[in-house]
Amino acid sequence: QEIGDLSGKKHGSHFAVSHSSVEQLEDFNMDLLGKGMQRLAPTLWGLLDRLLSMGKKNVGTEVSTEDPEDHDKEDIYWEAFGDRELDGLIEAVSANASAKQRKRIKKVMIFSIIMQTVNQKSKSFQSIFSIFLQSAHAPQKVIDTLSRMGICVSVDSINAAVVSLSKEAHCGISALGRTLLASYAYDNFEVDLKSTIHTVDKSEDTLKHLTAGLLFPLQHGVTLNDLHCSKALWETSLLNP
Hints:
The protein has helices spanning 2-6, 22-27, 30-40, 42-52, 59-64, 72-78, 86-92, 99-118, 124-135, 140-148, 155-178, 230-235; strands at residues 182-192, 207-217. By secondary structure, the chain is mainly alpha-helical. The protein has a two-stranded antiparallel sheet with strand order 1-2. The radius of gyration is 25 Å and the shape is extended.
């Protein structure tokens, strides 16, 4: 019953991967996710804590601190995540995480797997973690394996999320350019796209010449009126051909 309620849409666990947005990534908060799981499913949270503490002398003490009404000790841990979105997730699964932190993230992950089993749309943790794997250039075989385990979403879903985020970024760049309050920078670079299979038919030049462009919003309260002198400056510039 606890998991059924927790996996409902009203608790914010649903995530439409094909409609991913930057706002969703920025709003993802491990603090709220973990505390919500503990508050709405205290029985399972305490059970997982006991199971993950098997073999330790302080099992009883650890379980007794899991009162959903007492978040003092929980706050100390979850402050490590704060508002850093993905940074907190990465730190939690890194080698630098303490034993208590690793146990906490295990509980969140187990909760997420069970919640997705109950409701396929309840996959906020898996979706965010999948986008992180994509950004870290994780091999497709690794993603496929983790997807079958319920830890992340499929490769096709990740690609759909990338497409959605790319479209949003394109719209944002276009809107910034229309303000006429942006600075442009270009850089030429070369990439050697070597083929893994060497054949006579693929003997063409693998060196590609590309150009990258960056768009920087003007800061410090610059307005269009401040740029009226641009034409006069350009006419007197030594760089003007």
